[in-house]
C-alpha cells in the first residue's frame, strides 16, 4: 500500500498543462474538488436566496388560502345576506313611513292634543322646542304639562303609543296639585313628548312658538 507521502510527492509533480498525464486518482480528485466548488458557489448565490423567496411564497399561499376560505363562506351565504338586506330595507321603509313630513307635523301635534282631550286631562302647557336634526331625521321635543289622575295619565300614554306616527315620552314627572280650587286628589304630570320627521331638501331648523293654557 502506498504511503500518504507518495501521493503528496506525486501531487506536487503534476503537470498543470497536461491534465491527461495525471494519474486516475488525481484526475478524479480534481474533478470532485471543482464540482464541490461549483456546487458551493451555486448554492450560495442561487439556492439560498431562493429559499427566502420560497418562505415568503409559502406565507403568501397561507394568507391567500385563508382569504379564499373567508370569501368562499361569504359567497356561500350570499343568498341569505341578500334576503336579510331586503328584510332590513323593508323594515327601514316601514319605519320611515312612520316619520311625518314637515307639513304633517302640525297634524301630529294636533293628534297628541286630541289624545289628551280624549283621556280627560287638562292642559297647562304645550310648548314645542327647537328641533334637533340628525342624519336623516329630526327630533321635535315638546314640553307638556297636564293635570288629571293616574287612570287618565295611563289612557293618555296608551293613546299616544297607538298613534300611527312615532311619538316617545320621556322625562316624566308626576306630583300632586296643591291649590284651593277643589283640586284635591288631582295630579300634575310633566313630560317631554318627542315627535320625529324625516328631513327633506332645504330643511332648516325652526323654532315654533309656545302655546300656554289651551283647553
TrEMBL record:
<feature type="transmembrane region" description="Helical">
    <location>
        <begin position="25"/>
        <end position="47"/>
    </location>
</feature>
<keyword id="KW-1133">Transmembrane helix</keyword>
<dbReference type="InterPro" id="IPR014717">
    <property type="entry name" value="Transl_elong_EF1B/ribsomal_bS6"/>
</dbReference>
<keyword id="KW-0812">Transmembrane</keyword>
<keyword id="KW-0472">Membrane</keyword>
<protein>
    <submittedName>
        <fullName>Type 4a pilus biogenesis protein PilO</fullName>
    </submittedName>
</protein>
<dbReference type="Pfam" id="PF04350">
    <property type="entry name" value="PilO"/>
</dbReference>
<dbReference type="InterPro" id="IPR007445">
    <property type="entry name" value="PilO"/>
</dbReference>
Amino acid at each position: 500500500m502506498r504511503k500518504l507521502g507518495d501521493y503528496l510527492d506525486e501531487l506536487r509533480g503534476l503537470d498543470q498543462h497536461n491534465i491527461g498525464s495525471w494519474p486516475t486518482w488525481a484526475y478524479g480528485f480534481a474533478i470532485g474538488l471543482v464540482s464541490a466548488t461549483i456546487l458551493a458557489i451555486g448554492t450560495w448565490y442561487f439556492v439560498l436566496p431562493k429559499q427566502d423567496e420560497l418562505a415568503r411564497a409559502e406565507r403568501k399561499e397561507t394568507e391567500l388560502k385563508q382569504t379564499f376560505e373567508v370569501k368562499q363562506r361569504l359567497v356561500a351565504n350570499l343568498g341569505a345576506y341578500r334576503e336579510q338586506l331586503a328584510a332590513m330595507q323593508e323594515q327601514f321603509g316601514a319605519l320611515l313611513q312612520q316619520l311625518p313630513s314637515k307639513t304633517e307635523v302640525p297634524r301630529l301635534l294636533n293628534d297628541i292634543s286630541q289624545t289628551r282631550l280624549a283621556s280627560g286631562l287638562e292642559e297647562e302647557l304645550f310648548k314645542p322646542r327647537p328641533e334637533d336634526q340628525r342624519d336623516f331625521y329630526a327630533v321635535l321635543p315638546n314640553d307638556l304639562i297636564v293635570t288629571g289622575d293616574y287612570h287618565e295619565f295611563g289612557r293618555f300614554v296608551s293613546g299616544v303609543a297607538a298613534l300611527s306616527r312615532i311619538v316617545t315620552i320621556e322625562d316624566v314627572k308626576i306630583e300632586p296639585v296643591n291649590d284651593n280650587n277643589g283640586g284635591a286628589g288631582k295630579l300634575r304630570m310633566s313630560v317631554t313628548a318627542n315627535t320625529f320627521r324625516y328631513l327633506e331638501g332645504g330643511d332648516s331648523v325652526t323654532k315654533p312658538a309656545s302655546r300656554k293654557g289651551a283647553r
